[in-house]
Design a protein that fits this description.
five-stranded mixed β-sheet, globular, alpha+beta
């Protein structure tokens, strides 16, 4: 087949562009209608359940009725209907709707103006938010955000990122799994003008942990135990792939027992991760002791198919936090890079340690 002339190729590319743009418009229109449909069904289910008109059995009956009347439809089973209910309840909440809807008022036009007429009896801010934001994001991405975020601040962040950067499902999942929200907030990199529309300090601490109540007269041992408990919860919530193995994990070296602070197993890295906490200024010998623990773990606890253990040292001094990794010396640079990518970011750990310990020092004063 002869190659077309350059000018002809340009014309061909223009036709391909027209096809692509038309397909995108059709997809956007279909996605907007689908999201709007789920929002409206979620509204019906939510209101019926809230008013006591429907129970779980009725929702099951609705799922069966849809399956009977529309057998080719997917996603309308009991689980799907409750997801729609959750979707409506989350995004009809003023705490989530108002900041982003206000920001978008003069920036984004609703991509499907016709759907506004479908939202009867709903607050005007919610209408604007649903049309301008939610309909621009795929349902799969919505499900990821609902499942993997806890606070309204996180949801706003990932909704905006999905819309602004047109994130694919894989890209969004990677951001969620790597704690992009927390890292961005800690680094003060959320430069979008949306931040100026939100209340001051709204991104300071997306995960609120209850600090364990300390006795009136408390020691550094009390603080250490409280911090360890809260860090355990934080690591399990923030750390992708971490499984808790225990605190005060006993290691026997010779005739002497040693007790470590927090031990986890990382399923993706296939290795143990030991966290050691010191309520004092960093000293180099702390890393030496941590490496001693790692050698004992690898010698007595590690299984043959597992990778060398990792240590994470957290030091809380009066004015500064230090977080250091301890890795086996014989690890390859590629494996070290993989370890550090999948571990919780040092800055995030230091910030959390600071937030938790501030309570102790504030009470001490």
């Amino acid at each position: 087949m002869a190659q077309p002339k350059k000018s002809t190729t340009t014309d061909f590319e223009h036709v391909i562009l027209l096809i692509t743009e038309a397909r995108n418009r059709v997809y956007n229109k279909a996605n907007a209608e689908l999201v709007m449909l789920y929002f409206n069904i979620g509204k019906i289910v939510s209101e019926k359940v809230a008013n006591g008109n429907w129970g779980d059995g009725t929702v099951n009956d609705l799922a069966k009725y849809i399956a009977e009347k529309q057998p080719l439809l997917k996603g309308f089973n009991r689980r799907g209907l409750y997801r729609m209910k959750q979707f409506y309840e989350v995004y009809s909440d003023e705490e989530i709707v108002s900041p982003l809807a206000t920001q978008l008022e003069n920036e984004e036009k609703p991509i499907v103006s016709a759907v506004l007429t479908q939202l009867q009896g709903i607050d005007k801010e919610v209408v604007k938010f649903v049309s301008s934001v939610l309909t621009q994001i795929s349902w799969t991405n919505h499900l990821l955000i609902l499942a993997k975020t806890k606070t309204s601040e996180e949801k706003l962040f990932y909704l905006y990122q999905s819309m602004k950067d047109k994130l694919s499902t894989r890209e969004l999942e990677r951001q969620l799994n790597s704690a992009t929200f927390e890292r961005t907030m800690l680094g003060n990199n959320f430069g979008s003008s949306i931040a100026s529309k939100l209340p001051a300090g709204i991104f300071k601490d997306p995960y609120v942990f209850e600090f364990l109540a300390l006795p009136e007269i408390h020691s550094e041992d009390d603080l250490q135990q409280a911090l360890i408990k809260n860090l355990q919860n934080f690591i399990l919530e923030m750390g992708k792939g971490f499984t808790y193995m225990g605190s005060e994990y006993r290691l026997q070296v010779g005739n002497k027992d040693y007790y470590t602070d927090l031990l986890f197993y990382h399923r993706d890295l296939q290795c143990m991760v030991l966290f050691e906490l010191k309520i004092e200024e960093f000293q180099p010998e702390f890393l030496g002791k941590l490496n001693f623990y790692l050698e004992a773990l690898d010698r007595d606890v590690k299984r043959p198919h597992e990778n060398p253990s990792i240590g994470v040292l957290l030091c809380k001094g009066k004015d500064v936090e230090v977080v250091e990794y301890a890795l086996a010396r014989n690890l390859s640079p590629a494996l070290i890079a993989d370890y550090e990518t999948k571990l919780i970011d040092k800055k995030l750990l230091a910030e959390k340690l600071n937030q938790l310990s501030e309570i102790f020092y504030r009470n001490e004063e």
